[in-house]
């Protein structure tokens, strides 16, 4: 089954990372994926390189902006690849993917990785409402997305809930080695935020919360791993706060950093289902986070982590202080998180569900055409 995977870009971000994890596994299950990005391939788009190295057909149509008519035409001409299914992510890819699917008479599937309320902008909302009824399947990664997807016009029977999944992270260096490299003491309690630094991540709240927690218990320190538009601001705020939080920028060793930390902490005010939460659970780490979006689907408050209201640095600080003061509770939460990962968020479970969603969409589309 030839599968055209159309997305805006393969830069940084959880949705891109999930796609790069998923596509090679679909190839192993007999699909023939062809990945095409609308935006140009740029240096540092290592997700693009990952797919190429995995032997997946991956190219860019070099569409410079959504108003680039020539780029849009090149995107539309991807119909010449004769896919059996179109799978799209992002609004621009959905529009072009819809035209291709119409031309070929094949099913069109899309996936949404944004949390509730994050679909902003008149253009995006208008185009989504126009396209939504025509998709054969829409994949939600968290149950909290479903009411908004249906309100936008996606057909109830076409919605599939497929939580993100990850494979077991490969930890290459010992906890002691990484902490020594970071200058972290053996008795320090380290909270890490690992994310693309976009506005919804509310990094300022994390920085302030760790500073308040550190003032109460000097053993508490923070790590901030990730790049994005908020990096420079985070660096400036961390420096002004005495570097209680180390801002590491983009890192390729996130599993090592997670393993060396004592908890994962997120301060977001909107999320779907962050991969960093699932990775932390897979490594037996408790999660201290705002309870927004799909985070509460993954983390059971009081059992595998502590959930607090968004935009409340004091609540986040109090949770960090409480967990740092009770190592046995932190360890028990880590065990509970790992058990939940095993039950719901393993990579194989996610890939099987996507394969089923694609094949069932083809069967359903064929029946409707008849």
Briefly characterize the structure:
With 370 residues, the protein is α/β, with parallel strands linked by helices. It has 15 helices and 13 strands. Strand 1 (2-7), helix 1 and strand 2 (32-37) form a beta-alpha-beta unit.
- Broad structural category: alpha/beta
Strand order of the largest sheet: 3-2-1-4-5-6-7
The biggest sheet amounts to: 7 strands, parallel
Total number of β-strand segments?
13
Content of β-strand: 15-25%
Low-confidence stretches: none
Structurally, the number of domains stands at 2
Task: State the order of secondary-structure elements, H for helix, E for strand.
Answer: EHEHEHEHEHEHEHEHEHEHEHEHEHHH
The best one-word shape is elongated
